[in-house]
Specification:
The protein has six helices and 17 strands. The protein is an alpha+beta fold.
Length: about 280
C-alpha cells in the first residue's frame, strides 16, 4: 500500500439533521472537531446541515448574508479549529426579491474564520419522486448564476450542491477552472439515491479526472422525509476511497495531487475534446 501519511486529508461529514437548530449545530461541531483531530485540512458538511423542517417554518431559519446563527457558527468553528469548512448549504435571503425567495447557498470559511467564497445552487430540484412525492424547489428558491472554485493552497476546490450532479457541463466548467476536487453536499432522496447516487458521482470523477467528495444527509428526518446517506470520497480514476452507508459520522480522503496529474497526463481527455464539432 502506498504511504498516504503526508498527503492532505479532506473529510466528508454525514448527518441526520432535524428541526432543532441547536442540536444540529452541536452534532456538526462534534463531527468537525473529530475531522480536525483525525488530521483533516478541510471538512465538508451536507446540504441543509443546520436545519430540516416544515416549509412553513423555513423563514425563521433563513439568514441574511453575513448575519445569523449558522454563519456565526461556521466562522467561529473554522477559527477555533483552524480548519477550512465548506458549510454544506443553508438558506440565504435574496434582498429585495418580490417573491421573498432564498438561495440554497454553500459558504466557505478559511482557518481564520473568514468567509472567502459563496456558491448558490444553480439547478433546482423540481421533480416527481415515486408515486406520491413531488419536489418544487423553485417555489421558494432562486437559482444561482455563477460557478465557484476556491484555492485552498493544497488544492483548488469546485463547489456544487446535490441535484447539480446530474448536469455534467457544470462539472466540466469547474474542471476548466482548474478544480482538483469537486464537492457535493447533498440530501438525496432514497429512490434516486439508490438508483443513481454512486453512478453519477463516479461518472463526474472519471470524466473530469477530479476528486469527488460527497457529504450526505441520511435516514429519517422530523418531517418524515428519508434521505439516502452513502457519503463518498472518489479519486480521479473513479475508485472509492471512503464510504459511510448510514448514520452520523465522517470519512477521510487523502488528496494525492501528483496521482491526479499523472492520470491527466496519461489520458489527457481535456485536450482531446473537440467541442467545436458537438453542434449539428
Amino acid at each position: 500500500m502506498p504511504d498516504t501519511s503526508s498527503l492532505p486529508i479532506f473529510s466528508a461529514i454525514q448527518l441526520n439533521s432535524s428541526d432543532s437548530l441547536n442540536e444540529n449545530l452541536e452534532t456538526a461541531f462534534s463531527q468537525l472537531k473529530l475531522a480536525k483531530d483525525q488530521g483533516a485540512l478541510c471538512a465538508l458538511l451536507p446540504e441543509t446541515f443546520a436545519w430540516i423542517g416544515e416549509d412553513a417554518k423555513a423563514p425563521l431559519y433563513s439568514e441574511k448574508l453575513g448575519n445569523g446563527a449558522v454563519q456565526s457558527f461556521l466562522a467561529d468553528t473554522a477559527k477555533s479549529l483552524g480548519l477550512w469548512i465548506i458549510g454544506g448549504s443553508h438558506r440565504i435571503i435574496v434582498p429585495n426579491d418580490p417573491k421573498q425567495r432564498v438561495t440554497n447557498t454553500t459558504l466557505v470559511y478559511n482557518p481564520q474564520g473568514q468567509q472567502v467564497a459563496r456558491y448558490d445552487k444553480i439547478h433546482l430540484f423540481d421533480a416527481e419522486v415515486g408515486e406520491q412525492r413531488a419536489y418544487t424547489e423553485s417555489d421558494t428558491f432562486k437559482a444561482g448564476e455563477h460557478i465557484c472554485v476556491v484555492d485552498m493552497g493544497f488544492a483548488k476546490v469546485g463547489l456544487s450542491i446535490c441535484y447539480d450532479i446530474r448536469f455534467p457541463a457544470l462539472y466540466q466548467s469547474l474542471r476548466q477552472q482548474d478544480a482538483d476536487i469537486i464537492v457535493v453536499p447533498a440530501a438525496f432522496t432514497v429512490p434516486t439515491g439508490q438508483a443513481h447516487w454512486q453512478a453519477l458521482l463516479q461518472a463526474r470523477a472519471i470524466e473530469n479526472q477530479v476528486y469527488i467528495i460527497a457529504a450526505a444527509q441520511t435516514g429519517q428526518h422530523s418531517t418524515g422525509r428519508e434521505t439516502w446517506g452513502h457519503s463518498l470520497c472518489i479519486d480521479p480514476w473513479g475508485k472509492i476511497q471512503g464510504e459511510l452507508d448510514h448514520g452520523t459520522g465522517n470519512i477521510q480522503c487523502a488528496i494525492n495531487i501528483e496521482k491526479m496529474k499523472q492520470i491527466r497526463h496519461d489520458m489527457p481527455v481535456i485536450l482531446h475534446q473537440r467541442s467545436n464539432h458537438y453542434q449539428t
